[in-house]
Structure formats: structure tokens, C-alpha cells
């Protein structure tokens, strides 16, 4: 007489292993997708008034954008928190829009690099 695993037990083990692997893959991929879409912004082309650059920011993600979520550099300078203009305030709700200002622009082309929770956005503004 041979001793071994019956066909029913073997089938159940394979089924449990398959379901476990499928659930692991689902939760892993779902986590990656959520992190890349929860705080997403779009930025309209900026414009310059004197030495101040104005940007219109829209939150296209699913979570509010709070103070400190968006940082920027101007012409490869220091990294600063993005401040909103008068009339706009944090948090920026999903599908909400705010106006931000960056001072210290120079005559000519200004390179802005925005650091957001989901991406980096490069923009050039001519003053």
C-alpha cells in the first residue's frame, strides 16, 4: 500500500496557494495605484508680474493637498514650501483649485521644479 496525499487534499492545497498568491498580487498592485493617484496636481502655465510668478494649481487626486505637500525650487535654488496667494488656502480639496505665488523671479527665463507627493513638475516662466 502506498501512502501519499489524496487527490482531493492536493487539489485543495493548490487552490489555497493560488488564491493566496492572487490576493497578494491584488493588494500589492492596489497599493501602488493608490499611492500614485491619491495626491495629484496639475499646474496651468505660470505667468509673471514683476518678480512674482503666479501658478494656478488644481488637485486632481483623491485626497486633500495640505501645507507642505508641495515644495519647489526656482532656478535651481533652495527647496521651499509652496505658499498660496491671498484668497487661496490649504487644504486644497480634491477637484479644488488654488493660486500660488513664487517671489524672486529674474528677468528672462525662470525654471520652476515642483515636488509633489506623486510626481515632479517642471515649468518655465518668462519674466
Structure report:
The chain has 127 residues and is α+β, with helices and mostly antiparallel strands. It has 2 domains: 1-37; 41-126, Immunoglobulin-like, CATH 2.60.40. 24% of the residues lie in helices and 34% in strands. The protein has one helix at 7-37; strands spanning 41-43, 47-49, 52-59, 71-74, 80-81, 83-84, 97-103, 109-115, 120-126. Strands 1, 2, 3, 6 and 7 form a 5-stranded antiparallel beta sheet that branches. The chain has a 4-stranded antiparallel beta sheet with strand order 5-4-8-9, with no helix packed on it. A hairpin with a 5-residue loop joins strand 4 and strand 5 (80-81). The longest helix has 31 residues, at 7-37. It is elongated, with a radius of gyration of 24 Å. The termini are far apart.
CATH topology of the largest domain: Immunoglobulin-like
- Supply the number of helical segments: 1
- How many structural domains in the coordinates? 2
The second-level CATH architecture of the largest domain is Sandwich
Query: Which shape, going by the Cα principal axes?
Result: elongated
Report the C-alpha radius of gyration, rounded: 24 Å
Number of strands: 9
The percentage of residues in β strands lies in 25-35%
Mean pLDDT: 87
The description of the largest β-sheet is: 5 strands, antiparallel
Order of helices and strands: HEEEEEEEEE
Task: List low-confidence stretches.
Answer: none
**What is the structural class?**
alpha+beta
End-to-end CA span? 89 Å
Task: Tell me roughly what share of residues is in helical segments.
Answer: 10-25%
Amino acid at each position: 500500500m502506498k501512502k501519499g496525499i489524496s487527490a482531493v487534499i492536493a487539489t485543495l492545497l493548490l487552490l489555497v496557494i493560488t488564491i493566496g498568491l492572487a490576493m497578494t498580487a491584488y493588494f500589492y498592485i492596489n497599493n501602488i495605484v493608490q499611492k500614485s493617484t491619491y495626491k495629484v496636481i496639475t499646474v496651468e502655465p505660470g505667468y509673471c508680474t514683476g518678480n512674482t510668478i503666479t501658478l494656478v494649481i488644481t488637485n486632481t487626486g483623491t485626497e486633500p493637498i495640505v501645507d507642505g505637500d508641495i515644495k519647489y525650487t526656482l532656478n535651481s535654488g533652495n527647496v521651499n514650501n509652496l505658499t498660496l496667494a491671498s484668497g487661496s488656502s490649504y487644504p486644497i480639496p480634491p477637484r479644488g483649485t488654488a493660486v500660488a505665488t513664487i517671489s524672486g523671479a529674474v528677468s528672462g527665463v525662470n525654471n520652476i521644479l515642483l515636488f509633489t507627493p506623486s510626481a515632479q513638475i517642471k515649468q518655465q516662466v518668462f519674466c
